[in-house]
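Re: nicotinamide-adenine-dinucleotide structure - here you go.
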Amino acid sequence: MKVVVTGGAGFIGAHLTRALVDEGTRVVVVDDMSSGCRANLEGVVGADIEELSVLEPALAQVCVGADAIVHLAARPSVPRSLVDPRATHDANVTGTLNLLEAARQSGCQHVVLASSSSVYGDDPTLPKHEALLPRPLSPYAASKLAGEAYTLAYARCFGVPSLTFRFFNVFGPLQPADHAYAAVIPSLLSRAMAGLPVVLHGDGQQTRDFTYVGSVTAVIVEALRRRVVHETPVNLAFGGRHSLLEVVRVLEGILGGDIVVRHAPARGGDVRHSQASTELLARLFPSLSPVTLEDGLRRTVSWWTAASARASGSGAS
Ligand SMILES: NC(=O)c1ccc[n+]([C@@H]2O[C@H](COP(=O)([O-])OP(=O)(O)OC[C@H]3O[C@@H](n4cnc5c(N)ncnc54)[C@H](O)[C@@H]3O)[C@@H](O)[C@H]2O)c1
């Protein structure tokens, strides 16, 4: 089986590539390395890496003979999309259209798309179920919604079978903390582990459905194996709802000490509460057993500790 993973050198993509290679799948990674990097795939033997933008016509050639394409490549940040909406549109919307054209031309029979819970925006309904009217609050959310719409249209018009997942807040090893647009858990973790105060935007009571990356990739691997398709988007999260302050408390337990919290102004485009309805996911994938927040944080802290030790040359593995 040949699977093309766009964005395969990124955080989620590298975990997925590793999981697929481990079970003997031939993987071709397409990544322009804008936020991903080859180091994320260190030790992954057998994946081909095409350093290429999904905006390039050459994508069509890469997709020839693919049994499935998992489309993760994107500019994945709300704040970045507020700074440069057009760049977000190009990568996320035009990139998805280009990908779907490549899938259509190559006769690929399974496209799995990464969308985002951000499409729900500020609808106060909890949990977020897939039938809610999307209310994007940012150019990023709008771009993910447009990608969903194109994917569903290609299934209808051109018979490209697809499965669109709405990821919630995915976290775990490899997620970077060292840039201005870092996600919340790596930002908290890097400062807490360095003994620095953590910075929360707003009051810290905002909640998220934090999802461990291994739980996300396990669902995608199963979707590929069973060729699961669906005519509407499907939430890929497990219905947890934790505030940022709760995450800090759990980290205090794991790290064994108090963490000082500082508050910064709330950020534009951020939603207040987010929690997935899991009904549809559970119907399509009845035998799921996700990693808990605490266990996921423990695994992430272990990885972080080992990576920091390696970076400082202490020889830990
Ligand atoms: N991490 C989350 O919590 C989360 C939540 C919701 C949705 N998502 C979606 O999941 C997907 C993966 O996100 P991630 O967290 O792994 O982010 P990431 O930035 O680590 O991965 C994205 C990858 O896409 C690559 N890329 C960007 N533009 C590209 C282009 N034009 N051509 C080829 N490659 C390109 C980047 O280099 C990177 O490797 C994205 O589509 C994102 O929108 C992620």
